[in-house]
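ligand=cytidine-5'-diphosphate
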Amino acid sequence: MDKAPGTPPLVIALDGPAASGKGTLARLISEHYGFAHLDTGTLYRGVAWLVLNEGGDPADPEIAAAAARDYAIDKIAGADIRTKEVGAAASVVAANTEVRAALLDFQRRFAMKPPKGARGAVLDGRDIGTVVCPDATVKFFVTASPEVRARRRWLELEASRPDLKESEIYQDLLERDARDAARDDAPMAAAPDAELLDTTHLSIDAAFAAARRVIDGVFRRCG
Ligand code: CDP
């Protein structure tokens, strides 16, 4: 869907805890509406990977901030940033205000001027509806029970890490959620005007259908 000149882009924000299904939903929504998609977690994972790859400590504020300032997508080309260890380090660097500030402009530019002239953008993360795009056209806060989320993440990582136990992943998700929700700067939170979507008992198709109903309703009202 291309954008008519002068029309502000439509922005769909999806926030929520780890492995809640927001990434899959964001991808399906972006494909369906022909919007650009930015998984903002990859930015924090990328910064964390850069720090770990240099043998640095993700909790060191100077090192994490320098990695965020130097961050560029080609620096993490081919890196496996989806691991449990990189996820944990990502939530440590994500609590650093300088890291967040260094990544903010890129996210806002993506939303305001989606690549390839797309008419809209879908961003998923923790603070999209609250901080990055508070004026987003549609906002979702996607949740699921911790047990279901741990099972989903375990299935996702099983092939590459058969040694990981589901109980370990469960613990890791709880720790990461607690850190993400407790930080001072842009904590994970549902925007007051976000639509809550609990995917605990929903298939991917059912969650996608529910999201589409909300989006289509808002788009109809916006004309
Ligand atoms: O895929 P998963 O839900 O496990 O996590 P992710 O979206 O890849 O994000 C990894 C980490 O980056 C999170 O635990 C957050 O600490 C951080 N993050 C953030 O602080 N703000 C965002 N907008 C996106 C991710």
